[in-house]
User: Fold this.
Amino acid sequence: MEANRNVLLPNLLTLGNGVCGFYALSELFNVRLIPGGGELDFILPSAFTTAAWLVLLGMVFDVFDGKVARMSGGASALGAQLDSLCDLVTFGVVPAVMMLRLNMGFDPTWQRVVWFFSLAYFVGATLRLARFTAESGPEEAAHLAFKGLPSPGAAGCVASLVLFYRYIAAFEARELRWLSPFLPQQVLQETVNYIPIGLPILGLVLGFTMVSSRIRFPHVGSLFLNRRHSFDLLVYMIFGGILVAVIPEVIFPVLFLGYLISMPVLAVYHLFFPAASDSSVPSSGPVE
Assistant:
């Protein structure tokens, strides 16, 4: 089969996403518990941070591969299948394994609960990506909104919380030392120690949200790349980007969890106030 040369660049970007997922998995399996230590005392805990950043890097590849394919006329059935396979690794398998590895020091009963909740996340991501591949088309209008939470958004919720957890647990950043007179290090670290326990519960919620057809989520990449925007939005993007660059470990969880919560809240709002119009999500046209 002779491939269109326009397919090469999008497929390379897609493979970049898959490589990020594979690299993240290899990092997670390097983590070991310190013998005789506590539930969250790991050998090489920085591997969690590396894996979380790789998931977020995979999202960058995922945003641009489809966009490049549609702009260059290189969209193909092969590219769609490859995209779903790489997404399943980076946004399905890696977050599920991340939950398992973070909780491997707890008692066996809780580890079994974590295993099933992580499985629920993985199954949700698998079903979501299978539906996406079957229903989506190459047209730009088909990529403005999602039926259910997109798998990169779900993975971003998990990865960003892991980043925040390791950011506080390590307590090496200069800004944290500045805050220590007001927020003692021990209090912050004891608080974020609940994140590994809460992640599997969040994973169960994310798994269900990914396969829900009742809630539509906007495609953030398409919203920013495909439309004209006001000067005010440009200013917000610039200063938001500066905040992300300065304290990404704090801003990313706010952004991803805000994205997760905002659409169900709007759906409930419009359920009780049906006359209100939702301008944040396209009201017509195909959805993935």
User: Anything to note?
Assistant: The chain has one domain: 5-272. The first strand starts at residue 32 and ends at 33. The radius of gyration is 20 Å. Residues 5-272 form one domain.
